[in-house]
Design a protein that fits this description.
The protein is of the alpha/beta class. 41% of the residues lie in helices and 21% in strands. A 7-stranded mixed sheet has the order 3-2-1-4-5-7-6, with helices on both faces. Bound molecules: S-adenosylmethionine (SAM). S-adenosylmethionine binds next to helix 4 and strand 2.
């Protein structure tokens, strides 16, 4: 995956973002050393962005699709208000095992629940509305996640969808790869959706923020 902004300016932005806590830095290092596709981890800039959004919104119920090794869960947990909780969905035991270890070592162990199994099933099973949603699981299901969760977003809630610029491949109409197509179609659907107000940010690999009208 390549980021949307150039390497130099990305480095500058990262150097001017509050560095991660020691535990998150350790988690990032272990992820890089021992998991496949470590670039999936959100990292310093997006992690701090999620934390800031959560801190500003003060959500009670947060839903994450795609735990991986736990970086974004722990980033959001750092901004959660008293009584807030994060439900995060994962299918790979190897990923959840690492996330669990770091969550248990963090001050937020009682605020994060990892749900194993396909996210769509977990969404069905967990009832109610969400104050903040972070979508970062399998891209092929992005449109299904959007449709399942927009009606269940609280009226003051916010949805953040990751990788919506897909390394810039969304611009290439000749790129007919399934994931590119799904992301491009979702972006078009969101901006035309009468039910939603959206902004697409060029942070990392593209992050779209959506709220209900
Ligand atoms: C891009 S990574 C998530 C990165 C994570 N949010 C972070 O910041 O470190 C995507 C994760 O989604 C998981 N995943 C894939 N398909 C899934 C599904 N159907 N339901 C839940 N999780 C899924 C993958 O195993 C992977 O760990």
């Amino acid at each position: 995956m390549s980021f949307i902004v150039g390497e130099e300016i990305e480095g500058y932005a990262e150097a001017h973002t509050t560095p991660p806590a020691a535990l998150l830095a350790e988690l990032a290092a272990e992820t890089k050393a021992s998991l496949d596709s470590p670039q999936m981890l959100t990292g310093t800039i997006e992690g701090r962005l999620l934390e800031q959004l959560v801190h500003a919104l003060q959500p009670k119920r947060v839903l994450e699709l795609g735990t991986f090794s736990g970086y974004s869960s722990l980033s959001m947990a750092a901004g959660l208000p008293e009584g807030g909780h994060i439900d995060t969905c994962e299918v790979e035991e190897k990923h959840a095992e690492m996330a669990r270890r770091y969550i248990e070592r963090s001050p937020y162990a009682d605020r994060i629940t990892i749900h194993m199994g396909p996210a769509l099933e977990t969404i069905e099973r967990l009832g109610g509305e969400w104050d903040f949603v972070f979508i970062d699981a399998d891209k092929e299901n992005y449109a299904n996640y959007y449709e399942a969760l927009l009606p269940r977003l609280a009226s003051t809630g916010l949805m953040a969808i990751d990788n919506t610029l897909w390394s810039g491949r969304v611009l290439d109409e000749g790129d007919e790869e399934e994931t590119t197509r799904v992301i491009r179609e979702l972006n078009d659907r969101i901006v035309a959706d009468e039910r939603a107000i959206a902004v697409q940010l060029t942070v990392r690999d593209g992050v779209t923020l959506v709220r209900r009208r």
